[in-house]
Amino acid sequence: MAERIKVGVIGCGYWGPNLVRNFAKVAGFDMVAVADLRQERLDLIKRQYPHLKTTKHYRDILADPDIDAVAVVTPISTHYKIAKEALLAGKHVLIEKPMAQTVTEALELIELAEQENLVLMVDHTFIYTGAIRKIKEIIESGELGEILYFDSIRINLGLFQHDVDVLWDLGPHDFSIMDFLLDKEPLSISAIGVAPIAYNNLVSIAYITINFGDDTIAHFNLSWLSPVKIRRTLIGGSRKMLVYDHLKHDEQVKVYDKGVEIRTKDAIYETLVQYRTGDMYAPKIDQTEALEVECKHFWDCIVNRKKPITDGWAGLRVVKMLQAAQKSMANKGEVIPL
Amino acid sequence: MAERIKVGVIGCGYWGPNLVRNFAKVAGFDMVAVADLRQERLDLIKRQYPHLKTTKHYRDILADPDIDAVAVVTPISTHYKIAKEALLAGKHVLIEKPMAQTVTEALELIELAEQENLVLMVDHTFIYTGAIRKIKEIIESGELGEILYFDSIRINLGLFQHDVDVLWDLGPHDFSIMDFLLDKEPLSISAIGVAPIAYNNLVSIAYITINFGDDTIAHFNLSWLSPVKIRRTLIGGSRKMLVYDHLKHDEQVKVYDKGVEIRTKDAIYETLVQYRTGDMYAPKIDQTEALEVECKHFWDCIVNRKKPITDGWAGLRVVKMLQAAQKSMANKGEVIPL
Amino acid sequence: MAERIKVGVIGCGYWGPNLVRNFAKVAGFDMVAVADLRQERLDLIKRQYPHLKTTKHYRDILADPDIDAVAVVTPISTHYKIAKEALLAGKHVLIEKPMAQTVTEALELIELAEQENLVLMVDHTFIYTGAIRKIKEIIESGELGEILYFDSIRINLGLFQHDVDVLWDLGPHDFSIMDFLLDKEPLSISAIGVAPIAYNNLVSIAYITINFGDDTIAHFNLSWLSPVKIRRTLIGGSRKMLVYDHLKHDEQVKVYDKGVEIRTKDAIYETLVQYRTGDMYAPKIDQTEALEVECKHFWDCIVNRKKPITDGWAGLRVVKMLQAAQKSMANKGEVIPL
Amino acid sequence: MAERIKVGVIGCGYWGPNLVRNFAKVAGFDMVAVADLRQERLDLIKRQYPHLKTTKHYRDILADPDIDAVAVVTPISTHYKIAKEALLAGKHVLIEKPMAQTVTEALELIELAEQENLVLMVDHTFIYTGAIRKIKEIIESGELGEILYFDSIRINLGLFQHDVDVLWDLGPHDFSIMDFLLDKEPLSISAIGVAPIAYNNLVSIAYITINFGDDTIAHFNLSWLSPVKIRRTLIGGSRKMLVYDHLKHDEQVKVYDKGVEIRTKDAIYETLVQYRTGDMYAPKIDQTEALEVECKHFWDCIVNRKKPITDGWAGLRVVKMLQAAQKSMANKGEVIPL
Q: Mind listing the pLDDT tens digit for each residue in C90-136?
C-alpha cells in the first residue's frame, strides 16, 4: 500500500468519531481534518488527536487542496448538498446512509461522481461485517435453496432523531442488508407507522412489507420504543433456514438444516407436509470491525479505481424503498409500486 | 368441592389427551369417556386409562345421560356442529379455540347456551397461565401507564394443518391474549399472508395489524416456517414496558422501568425527547399448569353458575378478528373494519 | 412385542408417578399396583388410574405372584433392603439411583440378581436421554480426540432431602453420566463440602474433583443453594470440545471445532501455542422422554435376557464414587483412592 | 479539574493501547509518551496518535522530568522492577495486575510509594465497572443478608501466556473482585490445577477453594481450555442471592428474592426447610467504561492526595492468594493458611 490518501471527516456527532478512529488506524489513510458546527465536539477530537485540524466550516475541508477524500457524516437533510459540493471540489466521497432524501438527489450524486471520475461510496456499514459477508457466501452457494422469506426486527429504546422518523433512521440498515443479500427485485412496498409519542409527529414504530411479485415476502419491524434491544433477521430457504442475530458474541449466524417438503402419496392421492429437522451449524465469523474493512475498501476503490460494493446505486435503491415506504405510511398502508 | 361432574372428551388428537389427563387429575371431575374417529388414538387412551369408555361415535357421549359436560377438541370445522349438538343434549361445553368458523356460528352457540342455562367456555388456554394472569394484574394496576403498543411474535416450524392456515392455527392464541389484556376495542384490522410452500394454498406466514382509532397499534407476526421457536410479546406503556417470553423457564415476564418523555425547555423553545432507564424486575409467576387452572374454573362455573373468564363472547371476539384478518389477506392488506 | 410384563411401583413421592405414567404408556407393560406409606399419594394415583391396585404395604406387591417386576422408588436408605426382598421374591428390579448406600450392599444385590437370574437395572435416567446417547456416539467416533477434561455444574434452589446431602442427591446424575461417557477409570477423588444452612448438618454445596492418573481432570459443582438452575457439562477433547446444556429447548449439545495446538518453529527453537477456531454444530437430538426409552429397555432386558446398559455394576461404580467423596469431605478434601 | 497530569505508558501489548486511549480521553491527563520493546507496536500507536513520543527504552520515560505518572503494563515478571524504578524516579504509578510475583515485592513497592509520597494504584479494572460498584452497594446495604458463598467461573479459549499459568492470568480478576466485595478475611486456600496441554508445563485449568473459618465458601473455576466464554459469579446470601454475568449486554446483575429458611414446627418437634421464591430485579448499571472511571480516580488520587480504592494493599492481598494457591497446586490441593 504505497499510495497515501488524505482524508477529512465532516460531521462529528455520534458516528463521526468512529470514522476518525478507523481512518487513523487504517494504513493507507492520513487522517487530516475534522469539521463540526459544535466547538465541544471539536474539542473532544482535539484532546484525543491533537495533530488534527479542526474547523466549524466544512468548506475549509473542501477547499483544502491537500485533502483527497471526505466522509460526510452529517444530518440526513444535508447529505446531498455537502456531498455535491465535495464532488464538485474534486473529493472522493464516503457518504452516510441514507445517501439522500430523494431518488432524484441520489441519482444526481451518482452522475456527478461519474462525470468527475470520483469514488462515491455509501456507508452501509453492515455490508462489511463478517456476519453479512458470510451470509452472502452461504446464499450464493445455493445452500439455502430458493429464498422464501426475509424477516427482520430492529428495535430498541431511542434514539429519536430531531429530523427523521424511525423508518429513515433504522430502515436503511435492513433495506441495505436485504438489497445486498437477495438477488430479487422488490416490486412493491407497504408500510404502517404510528407515533404514540407526540414528538414532532415522528413515527416511532413502523412495520414494512416488501413484495417481489411471487410468494416471497420481506417484512421489517422497526421501533424506537422497545424496552429490549433486538437485531435479528430470519432468512428462510426451500432447503435450509438461517438466523442472524447481530447482538450475539458468538454464533451470530446459525444455519438450520430444517425445511418443509410436500410429498404426494401415490396410492392414496393424498398430499402430505413433511418436516425435516437436522443439525444446526454456526459458521466461524470474521470479527474484524466493519468500519475498518469498509475504510480499507474505500482506499482500494480510490487507489485502484474500483467500483465500491456499496456504491451510489446501492444507496439509491435504499432511498427508493424509503421514499415508497414513507408514501405508503402516509396512505395507511397503501401498496406502492417500486 | 362436594359436587362431582362427569365429563367426556370428544376428539383425542394432539391436544385432547392433555384434557383427559387434567380432568383425571382435578378433584371435582370424573373423567368418564373419550371419543375419536381413529381406533389407534382410542387404544392409546385405553392403555393408559383402562377404566375409561371409548367410542368412535361422539354421539354416544352426547347420548349418555350420566355425562354432565363435554370438551370438544375436534378439527375447527366441526366445532360449531358438535358444540351445538352437545348443548342441545344438555351438556356443559368446553370448546377448543377458535370456537367457530364464523361470527354467526359463535353467536348461535352463545345464545343456545344461554337458553339452555348451560356453561359455554372457550379453551383460550393462555388466559389461565400464571404469566398472563400476572400481566393482567400489572396492567390493571396502572403500572405501565397508558398502553402504546402490543407487538407479538409466534413462530416455529410447523405444524401445517390440513384444513386451516397459520392465521386460524396460531392467531387465536395472540388475539385472545390481546383481547384479555387490553381494555381497548379494535376498530380495524389489516393482514398480509403468503404461501411460499405450495400446500393446499395454505398461508403459512402472516403479518396482522390492528388499529384502535388512536395512535395505539397491535401487530402480530405468525409463521409455520421459522427454524426457531419464538413466542414473545412486547407491551409498551407510557410509564413502563413489559416483555413476555412464553418459552423461558424463569423470568417469563419482565417489567422495564423504561420510557420516553417529552420535555419543553422554556428558555429556548425547544422540545426534547428524554429517555428514562431504570431497573427491571421479573415478578414471580405461578407455574401451575394452565389447563389445570382452566379445568378447575370450568368446574367452578358449572357448579356455582358462574360466567367463565373465557366465555362465548371472548370466543366470538377472537373469531371476529380472524374473519376480518382473513378477508384482509384475500384483499392484499385492505383495512377491514371490525 | 408379544410378551407382557406385569409391573408394580414401590414408592410414589416425587419421581414414582413418572414411572407409573411411563409403565402405563409403554406397550409391553401392564401397570398393576402401587405402594406408598402415605394414603394421600395413593389417592392421587387412584384418581388418575382407578384400575390400579394401591397399598400401604410394599410386601403386598412382592407377595403378588402375578407381578413380574417392580420399580423401587423409595428413600435411598431403603433401596438395598427392598430391592433384596424383591429379588428374593423373584421379581425383576428397576432401582432408583443411587442403588445403595455402600459398595457392599450394591455388590450383594448384583450377586443376588445373578443367582436368581433376574434383571437388576439402575434408574440412571440421564443415560437414556437423546442428548447423552448422542454425546456417547460423538465421543466413540473419536471426533473429540483424547478427552482432556469433564467439567460439570448442577445447581438450583432445593430440594433439601431429609436424609441425604447434596452429594448423594445430585452427584449420582453426573457421576453416572461421566461413568457412561468416559472410557477412563477414576483413580482418586477429593471433595469439599459446606453446610451454610444449618439443617441436620447436611452439606448443601459440594465441589468434587476426580483424578485419572494422568493430566485429565473431572470436576463437579453441586449446589442446593443457587438462585438459578444450571445443568451444564463441558467436555474438552484434544480435537474438539463439547457443551451439553440440559435445560435448553434446542441445541442441548454443541460441538465446537476449537482447540489448542503446540507448534515448534524449528528455525528459532520456539514453542508456540496456536488456537484453532472453526464452526460449531448442534446435532439433532432425539426428544423421546428418557424414562420411556428406559422402560422399553427394561422390558427388552427382561424378555430377551439382556444385560441393562445401566446394570448393577454401573450402579456400584457410582456408589463407590459417592462413598469416597463423602469420606474426602469428612476429611477436608483429603485425596481418597478409588 | 485545573491541574493537568502528564502521563507515559510503559508496555503496549494487548492492554496498553486501552490505557493510552483512555488517558487521551480523560480531561485531566496529557498523554505524552509510550514505550515498548517492539517497533511494530510503537508504529501502530504512532499512526493513531502522531503527537506521542515513542521509545523502545522505558527508562526514557522514567528520565523525562516532564512526566508525572506512568502506567506499567508489561509482563508480570517485570512489574516489580519497573514500578520500583518508576517510584524511585518520582513518578506516580498505575500498575497492571497482579502487581508483583511475591508478597515481599508487593510490600516493598507499597513502602517505597509511602516513603516517596507517591500514588501507587493497581489496575484491578473490574472494581471500576458499574456492575461491581452496584454489587458492592447492594451487599453493603445488607439486602443479601449474611454472605453464604461466592462461586465464580471465568473460562474461555486462551490466551496462553508464555510466562504465567491460568491462575496468575485469570485469578487476579476474581480474587480482586472477592476481596473488594466481601468483608471477610480468607483463612486458607486450596487449589487443584492440571496441564492437559503440554506447553511449558503451564497449568491451564484450575479450581480454587477459599475457606473463611466458618461455613462460608468461595470457589473459583478458571480455564483457558473452554470452547465457550463464561464470566459469571453467584453470591448467595441468607436473605437474597445475586448473579453477576459480565458478558450480558443488559441485566449484568440480577438480585433474586430467593432463600432458604429453617422452621421448627413446635407441635411435632420437626425441623423443616422452606424455600422462599419471590421477584427478581436487575438494577440499572452505569455503563461507563471501567478504565475511564479508573483513570479519573487515578487523577483524583494524584491531584487530591487520596488513597486509591485499589491501592497497593489490595494488590498485595491478591498476590498473597495467588502465591498460596500456587503452593497448594504444587502440593495436590494441600490446604495453605493465608
A: 999 999 999 999 999 999 999 999 999 999 999 999 999 999 999 99
Q: Which residues of chain D form CATH 3.40.50.720?
A: 5-124+290-308
Q: Which residues contact B262 (CB under 8 A, 6 or more apart)?
A: A197, A198, A199, B271, B272, B273, B274
Name the CATH architecture for the domain at D5-124+290-308: 3-Layer(aba) Sandwich (3.40)
Is A176 in contact with A314 (CB distance < 8 Å)? yes
Mean pLDDT over D101-111 rounds to 98
Nearest CA in chain A to D23: A48
Quickly name the fold that domain B127-288+320-337 has: Dihydrodipicolinate Reductase; domain 2 (3.30.360)
Q: Report yes or no: B93 and B301 within 8 Å, Cβ to Cβ.
A: no
Strand order in the sheet with B120-123: B53-55, B29-35, B5-10, B69-72, B92-96, B120-123
d(CA D212, CA D233): 18
Numbered ranges of CATH 3.30.360.10 in chain C: 127-287+320-337
- Please tell me the class of the A5-125+290-310 domain: alpha beta
- What is the average per-residue pLDDT within B282-295? 97
Average pLDDT, chain C: 94
Q: What is the mean pLDDT of residues A27-42?
A: 96
At B94, the amino acid letter reads L
**Which of B190, B197, B262 lies at the smallest CB-CB distance from A260?**
B197
A167 confidence band (pLDDT: 50, 70, 90): very high
Burial A98-118 (b: 16+ CB within 10 A, else e): bbbbeeebbbbbbebbeebeb
* Beta carbons of C58 and C82 less than 8 angstroms apart: yes
pLDDT at D294: 98
**Nearest by CB: B249 against C48, C49, C229:** C229
Encoded amino acid at C256, one letter: Y
Residue A287, class by beta-carbon neighbours within 10 Å (0-12 exposed, 13-18 middle, 19+ buried)?
exposed
CB C32 within 8 A of CB C9: no
> Of D93, D26, D30, D28, which Cα lies nearest the Cα of D58?
D93
- pLDDT, residue D309, reads 98
For residue D296, pLDDT beyond 90: yes
3-state secondary structure of B5: strand
* Average pLDDT of span A82-105: 98
The hierarchical CATH code for the domain B5-125+290-309 is 3.40.50.720
* Residues of B with Cβ-Cβ distance to C19 under 8 angstroms: none
User: Which value, to the nearest 10 degrees, does the dihedral of the CA atoms of residues B89, B93, B99, B105 take?
Assistant: 30
Paired sense of beta strands B5-10 and B29-35, if any: parallel
Q: Which residues contact C202 (CB under 8 A, 6 or more apart)?
A: C160, C161, C164, C165, C166, C195
For residue C190, give the nearest of D151, D194, D333 by CB distance.
Answer: D333
Arch. (CATH architecture) of C5-125+290-308: 3-Layer(aba) Sandwich (3.40)
- Interface test with chain A among C137, C249, C251, by most A beta carbons within 10 Å: C251
The pLDDT confidence band at residue A271, using thresholds 50, 70 and 90, is: low
Q: Which three cell numbers stand for residue C234?
A: 463441558
Q: Which cell goes with D115? A: 516513603
Q: How confident is the model at residue B162 (pLDDT cuts 50, 70, 90)?
A: low
Which chains share 3+ C-beta pairs under 8 angstroms with B?
Answer: A, C, D
* Grid coordinates given for C282: 448442534
- CATH architecture, domain D127-287+320-337: 2-Layer Sandwich (3.30)
The residues with which D188 forms a beta bridge, in sequence order, are: D211, D337
Q: State how far the Cα of C215 lies from the Cα of C185, in Å rounded to an integer.
A: 13
What strand order describes the sheet that includes C120-123?
Answer: C53-55, C29-35, C5-10, C69-72, C92-96, C120-123
